[in-house]
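Hi R.,

Here's the chain you asked about this morning:
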Amino acid sequence: MSSKNPPSGGFFHGCGQPRQHHPLPRIRPRQAAPQTPPQDCDNVTQLAVRELPLFPLPDVVLFPQEVLPLHIFEPRYRMMLRTVLETDRRFGVVRWDPQEGTMASVGCCAEILQCQTQKDDRSYIVTMGQQRFRLLEVVREAPFKVGLVSWIEDEQPDDHDQLSQLSGQVSQALTDVIELTGKLMGKPTTLPNDLPDLPRELSYWIGSHLGGPVADQQQALLEITNTEERLRQEFELLDETRRQLAARTVLESTLRDLKGSGADEASEDD
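And the predicted structure, written out as tokens:
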């Protein structure tokens, strides 16, 4: 991939989306449901506030427990990598909006799992998303960005049974979407065996695997601090996609039947 030089720095991730499993079918953009306004930073979770090196990436939204491979080659990010490797191997991935020229206020901490440095000092790293954070302020711009951040956690659910039921509905909708996609593609498609079964982790997995140019939707899902609300929005997206795929499946089946009938009639005429 050719390198541009926005504040995001140079990077490379496989296939245009930094995800390791099956991407969900492209979903038509839609307006997100109203969300609770961001809480004041003093009321987020009462967890520690810390400084964190920042790696802004164009339209890349990292979710907790998702893998993100990166190619580090710009001098400022080589320096950041050396600094991070000498400490706790963690830095913040924040979406950079190339259209607006702005950096998101919520990102995800990435932990370096593997690092291979080449002779020319370029590095290939594999990271995994850990905890979400809210960016309170950028405290340093050079040689690389450093932010003051506070950690974000989802609120405790009011009704665990209701959340579990919603999670099951989302899982079924996801399964239907994957199976219908396989039928339309003409080859069986299955979900990975390690698909999360806990509601919060499932909501992160789905958010990270939305297909197509959906960075706005992904960022909105990342910022939600209520697991049930995140799953509800994802169910609406999946259910809409399921309906569209089902209609296409019926249409293609009807067209095949009509084509087959036409061929049979032609054979009888002969």
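The radius of gyration is 22 Å.

Let me know if you need anything else.
M.
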